[in-house]
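Re: the 349-residue chain
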Amino acid sequence: MRAAVIHAPRDIRVEDRDQPSLISQRDAVVKVAAACVCGSDLWPYRGVTETKHARPIGHEMIGEVTAVGSEVTGLAVGDFVISPFTMNDGTCQACRNGMTTGCEHLSGFGGKDAYGDPVGGAQAQYVRVPDASATLVVVPGPVDPALYPSLLTLSDVFSTGHHAAVSAAVGPGKTVVVVGDGAVGLCAVLAAKRLGAARIIAMSRHADRQALAREFGATDIVETRGDEGVQAVRDLLGGDLADCAVEAVGTEESMDQALHVVRAGGNLGFVGVPHGVPTIGMRYLFDTNITVGGGMAPARTYIPELLPDVLSGAIDPGRVFDLELPLDEAAEAYAAMDERRAIKVLLRP
């Protein structure tokens, strides 16, 4: 089969690899119908995260089950499924409380699973999924291929945007500032709209992303940053700060920006993968009573909640994909996102 492999910074190759098969009776094998490049994939691509040896890459995919182990329940060959970006056993304390990304037997794509066996990357034609019963979510069929982009966002990017909004306590009547105009930030705008926010301010400097943010529900755009950005938010809100903020970048500057657009007693939800050791001023938190929550999104918990709205057409998060390429052109997909020629790229195996 064909699969994307990262060898070094800016060195993505699509290579022939062995097609995966069942290793454990808890496994399933999925034929990938669509995968994509994530903003977090750009960290190793840019060399910010070290690539010590060549490895498969990608962690978002949807597809059809082609094999299941004898211990797998609730899945059958032929089922169309969404895989969250991590695998979980469904039985530990974290899983029982819905925090599947904190699973005691957490497995990830592109490395080894919790049991020591290799797992391929999701940017491939086939993938072995450990702990398949607890991980994969079946999409009721028949599945319209036109829904593939939006279904694929549930694997990570829209579930993560939703987690940001939930962590920021977004709800009816609230005012929200979204810091970050990548696919996650844009999905957070859509999630905030879905949760009933009255005013959604997207911080963005890019016209194409501003346009999509408005289509997703942003009521206002702020292009400035720092103190000017804070003042712009106050100007829009009649001198007030926002009830909630979402941080969807992962840098110290973005966290600081999000923190300072929130009123005292407000909430900040962060989902940007931390890089550059972001810090938060504890004294500022103490003085303002701002609640900070978030982290790696438990996508497996959110998918069943969000799936009906995708199937009904109530939301269309797949619009964050503004470029589609065949898997063999994965290197161009990475370059397009790195150079901001694309918001998010869908790959068709």
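The first helix runs from residue 42 to 46.
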